Amino acid sequence: MVHGNELIVDKKFHFHFTSCSTKVEQLFYLCLIQNLNTKYLSSGFIQYNSMNRREFARNTLITALAAGVAPSLLAKPYFQNPFNKADFGDDFLWGVATAAYQIEGAWDADGKSPSVWDTFTHKKGKIKNNENGDIACDFYNRYPEDIENIRRMNFDVNRFSLAWTRIKPEGTGKVNPKGVDFYHRVIDKTLEKGLQPWLTLYHWDLPQCLEDKGGWANRDVINWFSEYVDFCTREYGDKVKNWMIFNEPAAFTGLGYMAGMHAPGKMSFGKFKKAVHHVVICQGEASRIAKKNVADGQIGTTFSVSSVHPKTQSEKHIKAAARMDAIFNRLFIEPSLGMGYPVDGWKHLRTMEKYFQPGDEEKMKFKFDFYGLQNYFRTVAQFSLFPPIMWANQVKPKKLVNSTDELTDMGWEIYPEGIYEMLKKWGTYKGIDKIIVTENGSAWPDKVENGVVNDQKRIEFFKGYLEQVLKAKREGVPVKGYFVWTLMDNFEWAEGYHPRFGLVHVDFATQVRTIKNSGLWFQELLK
Prior knowledge:
Layout: E1 2-3, E2 6-10, E3 13-16, H1 23-35, E4 44-46, H2 53-66, H3 85-88, E5 93-97, H4 100-103, H5 116-121, H6 139-152, E6 157-161, H7 164-167, H8 177-192, E7 196-202, H9 208-211, H10 221-236, E8 242-246, H11 249-258, H12 269-293, E9 298-304, E10 308-310, H13 315-330, H14 333-336, H15 360-363, E11 370-374, E12 379-383, E13 392-394, H16 417-427, E14 435-439, H17 456-474, E15 479-485, E16 504-507, E17 512-515, H18 517-526
């Protein structure tokens, strides 16, 4: 960090900027220092004001040579990586992911109707600081700049979602030409920049008019969603070959219909179970529609997963972990694989049978062309009397670390081994032939200082998690891609605008974009 004229790399290594003439020069030296292994540097203080620039450069070069670092690498920021692009293979895809409500803004423009998130965020007290996505990142008007930034960072894939409310404002029936045309423009710009468009059909923004009829808890949603998917895949299928049906169904059903923390803000165990069953059926039915409509299409969907560990090896904690694993990791993927609901992990799931109608078991199944794995943290489970029926809850992450400095800005534990554990688990499922990590990332309190965002903690996060992805790949897990969450800072659901996950910093007052050092790190890694 920089304090006055002093750069503090860690508690033992300091550097004084007194004679540096520009902030650019300071950044250059910062990059050099941060990428040298400090065990080769003398501890204490290096006083730059006793050396001229040429002497400093010479001494830096000598130190680098002593550390075994090639001089040609000195100008490349964050070059000390435990891997390179080639390690992952030529066919490995690198991408960034976003969601319509979180970035688009223009919440009521050009014929768009309100989604459940428009309604939810306009209610006082639902979102931190009473913020909303009315403007967000203004991607609706600024998408060319944002897609250009993806290209600049050398990614292959632009994963984004369609807003159901732009395309069919009434949920079903009438199509909104302006909304349809907007996504044509985004797709065309993506292709123009040499990127692959990967479309998510549903990323949590159900039309409010359909929620008024019961939303995902109403079995009619199977028909509503099928109609929407049929139109989208026919409309865009000649340009877009990679499709994801849902984003994290466990999240939008659990947080939206049981916990009440996300839109639509319901708190009903019965509605949650109905929503789960209808989403599982939609998962299969919509996939069959997409597969039929898109020539040479690759159809997948995404699941949030979290490696679940028991607090101790006590039987009560082990059983609590099994119940949480059933809900967090198995509830949606196993029915698609023909395994049914994971009643062995949580016996209460036997009650799902009352929502079945003839033919549902077959409708729930679909062999996806790829499976999207999304991971951020692990879960340490413990037996608890609350919530009842589940009889389990999560040990708070702050109790798992020595210092809150080891938590992200979301309060999440950094546990790279968790993504490896879940990739290995998915590798044991019969029928999973291709896995894409469709989301992974971290939030930090990023600031722009003299045009630079030095998010070193995010870079270290990516290094740690990507090491584990590569480890799983080398051990035979069919992981074929990695998408960063997220392209740019955006509206982070119930947390509002405070958590910053992006590779690109967004000043929400001015909409100015600044590629962070983590984005430049990927630019270097992927070139």
